[in-house]
Design brief:
Elements (H helix, E strand, L loop, with lengths): L12 H6 L3 E7 L7 H11 L22 E5 L8 E7 L5 H7 L7 H7 L3 E7 L6 H19 L4 E6 L4 E3 L1 H12 L5 H4 L1 E5 L8 E6 L2 H4 L2 E7 L3 H16 L10 E3 L10 E7 L10 E5 L7 H5 L22 H8 L9
Parallel strand pairs: 9-12
Antiparallel strand pairs: 1-4, 1-5, 2-3, 3-4, 5-6, 7-8, 8-9, 10-11, 11-12
């Protein structure tokens, strides 16, 4: 569900992210030459449950095409196509990326990434407005990038929509989840801890990447919980949003995952509009019952009470949805591709 927002003439950052293709960058030790037909053959063999188009359905761009595309991969279901562009060595804001992704900046993985000699960018447009199409576009982008991830000349993979950076073998775990019909949440989202200057002794955290799927991120501020529990609660809320859960409303409540035999925490949900606290997208704030965060002072009274749950199946046509089961399993600890 997209939170209520004040009408505006300019598109919000969340709206822009919802219309942006899913991009994955492959860092290479050297320039790679390949044939688009071979890529299509590889993804069709490795990901047979995804629908792929014919090799002649989307012809490769001519040499010198202004788009700089070197290959297109026809996807199914009206998604894409996947467009692969090639370039020389690429520079990124390495140190923040290494810090966020827990990569030792002096280690061999980091050194190899910074010394890349070429790169490929895979971009897949979802071409629609619903969550299912965005998830499919991310699946196709992941599948195409996986063809390159295990090459010996691949130095690393950067997932553009969530600021993830990782070696190729780590990325292949996301591909394994897609191949098995699961959502690789811990690869497609980034859970980032931070300290709120207003309460530096308490724990805070935010998701990065969720807005590309649902137009909003999830955040916890000033929680007395351990940092790991804060991130687990954000993960659980993100999972529910990706399952199409419509229980999110300003002033509603959400029960978080249990931990170590303790009773689960019931959070209060507040809609934080883009820019209100320097946030670059709309966010759902999860307020811990013992948090001193002054949401009423900063955001006013909640605009809606707890919504009445809908009867019937989840967004995937089954009772509660497969992701709801995954959230339940998180009570025993989050594991990617579980």
């Amino acid at each position: 569900m997209t939170p209520r927002r004040t009408p505006a003439t300019a598109r919000s950052t969340g709206q822009i992210r919802l219309s942006t293709p899913f991009r994955i960058t492959v860092l290479l030790d050297e320039i790679l030459q390949f044939d688009a037909g071979d890529i299509l053959t590889a993804v069709a063999e490795d990901f047979p449950d995804l629908a792929w188009g014919r090799a002649d359905a989307t012809p490769d761009p001519a040499p010198g095409d202004a788009s700089d595309a070197v290959a297109t991969v026809p996807c199914g279901g009206g998604i894409g196509p996947g467009v692969i562009t090639a370039g020389e060595a690429i520079s990124m804001d390495w140190h923040p990326l290494f810090h966020r992704n827990r990569i030792d900046p002096t280690g061999p993985d980091a050194i190899r990434m910074t010394q890349n000699r070429a790169h490929l960018e895979i971009a897949v447009n979802h071409g629609g407005t619903d969550l299912a199409r965005r998830l499919d576009a991310a699946r196709y982008a992941t599948a195409i990038a996986a063809v390159f991830a295990d090459l010996p000349i691949t130095a690393g993979i950067a997932i553009g929509w969530c600021d993830r950076l990782m070696p190729g073998d780590d990325f292949l775990r996301a591909a394994d989840a897609v191949r098995a019909g699961r959502i690789p949440l811990l690869h497609w989202l980034h859970l980032v801890p931070f300290r709120d200057p207003a309460a530096p002794k308490l724990r805070s955290g935010v998701s990065v990447g969720l807005a590309s799927f649902v137009g909003v991120e999830v955040e916890i501020r000033q929680s007395p919980q351990p940092q790991a529990e804060v991130l687990r609660a954000i993960y659980a809320a993100a999972a529910q949003l990706l399952d199409g859960n419509d229980m999110f409303a300003d002033g509603a409540e959400m029960t978080g995952p249990a931990s170590h035999g303790a009773a689960p925490v019931t959070y209060r949900l507040r809609h934080l509009p883009e820019g209100r606290l320097g946030n670059d997208t709309d966010r759902w704030l999860l307020i811990h019952p013992e948090s001193p965060f002054p949401d009423r002072k900063l955001l006013g009274r909640a605009k809606a009470g707890r919504p009445r749950p809908k009867d019937g199946a989840g967004s995937d046509g089954r009772n509660g949805g497969w992701l709801a089961s995954r959230v339940a399993r998180m009570r025993r600890g989050p594991t990617d591709g579980a």
